[in-house]
Amino acid sequence: MRSLALDIGDKRIGVAISDELGVTARGLFAIERKSLKEDTGRILDLVKEYEAENIVAGLPLNLSGSDSKQTEKVRDFTEKLGNKLRSSGMSNVKLILHDERFTTKIAESALIEADMRREKRRKIIDQQAAAIILQSWLDSRQREI
Length: 145
Prior knowledge:
Radius of gyration: 15 Å
Order of helices and strands: EEEHEHEHH
Number of strands: 5
Distance between the termini: 15 Å
Strand order of the largest sheet: 3-2-1-4-5
CATH superfamily: YqgF/RNase H-like domain
Number of helices: 4
Strand content: 15-25%
Number of domains: 1
CATH architecture: 2-Layer Sandwich
CATH class: Alpha Beta
Shape: globular
């Protein structure tokens, strides 16, 4: 069972995928945001390509757990993505919101520790954050079993 993860930002959407067993996550790339129609269409193409059964979207909550402006943007985007999944006959794909507090900071710290230059970090930070979101969700599922 494969899962796709999204780190949804205003400029880019980081994308990660799990292995077929749903144990490990790896970053794929970042989608440069263009329009809602193009962005959601690209995500649906990825769901088909990887035969993903789940889409895990990072939910950027405040430290207190409350919603921020970005949280509302992500909720709005995922609601529209869910509508597009249903209208495209993909209602079996589960859309899951997962707490993503600190994922970008964790990803950036790991890349800095790996001595990666700032320019290269900027290019892959979103996909790394998506991989951390997905790995966190996969790990939480293992604890539930």
